[in-house]
Automatic annotation (TrEMBL):
It catalyses: a uridine in tRNA + S-adenosyl-L-methionine = a 3-[(3S)-3-amino-3-carboxypropyl]uridine in tRNA + S-methyl-5'-thioadenosine + H(+). This is tRNA-uridine aminocarboxypropyltransferase. One of its GO terms (molecular function) is tRNA-uridine aminocarboxypropyltransferase activity. GO terms for biological process: tRNA processing. It is an enzyme of class 2 (transferase). Residues 150-388 form the DTW domain. Keywords: S-adenosyl-L-methionine, Transferase, tRNA processing. Pfam families: DTW. Its EC number is 2.5.1.25. Signal peptide: none annotated.
Length: 401
């Protein structure tokens, strides 16, 4: 639970929101606007000061398997990420300039940043194949974030070491028949205010598995699991405008009545239900969803990927999600929610279905809610410690009812 100070802060924010906003409807639609997917935190809790990384320090400056998997992944080190790190080490020696990271997203700064930018742009343009370009873009994003976070961010919670929240997060076992796949855009990897990371902090990396968009090793692991599971046991939590949207209840009730494979799946304790959560902004998630559909067509011969959407409702979890946005975004919105809150909504709706009601999904959802409160407190405390405002001006020009 949050401390009294943080509770007071949140109450103050709610008061300001109530004064600034028109009267809310009793229900809001989580996916009604194309501005974001689950409306994640794309801004950092604060801008980090520049910091140098000397790749020659320590062993050889490489990313070890232990370090790589410490960030929340189960895959081997991506080969292209290793190659890019090696190229950056060579460039550092060639131009006799150390790497410097800082600011929003921990970007490369200074002379090294300018020279590396020229080099990577030339490499990118020389790649004629769009798939190679995507893989290079993703690998470079990941490589820079890994190097810039060395010795700075906690590997578990992705917060600066002095703000680590790990001791306050309560682990919980997810029902063994459910597996979350966090299909994350590389620009959201290692963001301090990302909420997708909370799912494997709470449930573990096998129950909530990170899959980075454009990283071949990650996508291969995910799709190999989907091949084994079969299309009837894979769902994407996404507002697919090209198909009829199904609620959680409609999707599973219809599958149980019409799909014998799904009926057997619910009865078979050895089979897993896979849920994809796309972790990225709306503009990025559109490309990520297209990639999912293309791969689904390659594997199953059909472009349609089973999609489900959450029911509308201004729940306490939805309000907490808004508070997190309010403190970390210049323009939050009541009709959106963050990635972890979307998982909470999914678990809560599954709990209401008879076939899932005995597996304690409500308690598992509560564990993620608690972790979101811990993250809110950590981000708030950090902003206050850094002397930054914890509130932002609300700018809504339309009636969200």
């Amino acid at each position: 639970m949050l401390c009294a100070t943080s509770t007071t802060i949140r109450a103050f924010i709610l008061f300001k929101c109530a004064a600034a906003k028109p009267q809310l409807c009793s229900k809001t639609h989580i996916y009604s606007r194309p501005g974001s997917l689950y409306y994640k935190f794309s801004m950092s809790a604060c801008r980090s000061p520049p910091r140098e990384v000397h790749l020659g320090d320590g062993a050889d400056g490489s990313i070890t398997l232990q370090e790589w998997q410490g960030w929340g992944t189960i895959s081997p080190i991506p080969a292209l990420v290793t190659d890019i790190v090696e190229d950056m080490k060579i460039l550092e020696r060639d131009i006799d300039s150390h790497m410097s990271f800082g600011g929003l997203g921990g970007k490369l700064k200074g002379h090294f940043g300018v020279q590396e930018d020229k080099k990577h742009r030339a490499t990118y343009q020389a790649l004629g194949d769009s798939e190679k370009k995507l893989q290079f873009f993703s690998a470079r994003q990941i490589a820079c974030r890994l190097l810039g976070s060395k010795g700075y961010l906690c590997q578990k919670c992705w917060l600066p070491m002095e703000d680590c929240m790990c001791s306050k997060v309560r682990p919980c076992s997810l029902w063994h028949r459910i597996r979350f796949w966090l299909y994350m855009h590389p620009k959201d990897f290692l963001r301090q205010n990302n909420t997708g990371k909370l799912l494997w902090q709470v449930f573990g990396v096998e129950a909530a598995t990170l899959c980075l968009f454009g990283i071949a090793e990650h996508e291969e692991i995910m799709w190999n699991s989907f091949k084994l599971a079969g299309k009837g046991k894979v769902w994407c939590l996404y507002p697919n405008k090209g198909a009829v949207l199904k609620s959680v209840q409609d999707a599973f009730d219809q599958d149980l009545l019409e799909n014998s494979d799904c009926t057997q799946s619910v009865a078979n304790e050895d089979e897993t239900l896979n849920f994809i959560l796309i972790d990225g902004t709306w503009s990025n998630s559109a490309a990520m969803f297209r990639r999912l559909k293309e791969q689904a067509k390659t594997i199953w011969g059909e472009e349609e990927l089973p999609c489900i959407t959450l029911a509308a409702g201004a729940s306490a979890m939805h309000k907490l999600s808004f508070l997190l946005q309010f403190e970390c975004r210049p323009q939050p919105s009541w009709d959106r929610t963050c990635t972890a809150a979307a998982a909470v909504g999914l678990l809560s709706e599954l709990q209401l279905l008879q076939q899932f009601s005995s597996w304690g999904l409500d308690k598992q959802a509560e564990a993620v809610e608690d972790a979101l409160e811990v993250l809110l407190e950590a981000l708030t405390t950090r902003r206050l410690r850094m002397g930054r405002s914890i509130t932002r001006k609300v700018r809504h020009s339309t009636d969200i009812c």
